[in-house]
Amino acid sequence: MTTVATEVPEAKRLENGRIVAIAGPVIDVEFPPHALPEINTALQVSLVVDGEEVLITAEVAQQIGEGRVRCICLKPTDGLARGAVVSNTGRGITVPVGDAVDHLLDEHGLAHAGSAEQTDLAAPHVGLE
After folding, report:
1. What are phi and psi of 33, to 5 degrees?
2. CATH, residue 32
3. Which of 78, 89, 95, 103 is an S-S bond match for 42, by CB 3.0 to 4.6 Å?
4. Domain-embedded: residue 117
């Protein structure tokens, strides 16, 4: 059995960016001009707090020009610094989903393994006649 390495086309590669500005929960991230993430894309940055690694997820809210995007972080940004490496996930933010019969979270607040959906999906169409 042979294994063939698949080459990812240049346009499909997800490149890292760097934080250039921080204002509360909002960060500006600079990417190479050809690798600018789209609006609603999830980005992730790693931060060490009290000896533990914390993964901060941010969502691209605006493309502000010059290879930069403005993002809203979903966790506190205390401790982030300009120049920190930010990775592009290439997808939107996802949340675990369940149905009305099955409970999504257990008594400890942990999500059960299951499917995940993007948060920016269109609302379902309800036919009102």
Report:
1. -55, -30
2. 2.40.10.170
3. 89
4. no
Domain span at residue 68 reads 14-93
Burial of 51 per CB tally in 10 Å (0-12, 13-18, 19+): exposed
Say if pTM beats, i.e. exceeds, 0.90: no
105 assigned to some structural domain: no
- 86 in a structural domain: yes
Give DSSP secondary structure letters for the chain.
Answer: ----PPPPPGGG----EEEEEEETTEEEEE--GGGPPPTT-EEEEEEEETTEEEEEEEEEEEEEETTEEEEEESS--TT--TT-EEEE-SS--EEE---SSS-SB-TTSPBPS--EEETTPPPPP----
Task: Decide if 110 is inside a domain.
Answer: no
The tally of domains found in the chain comes to 1
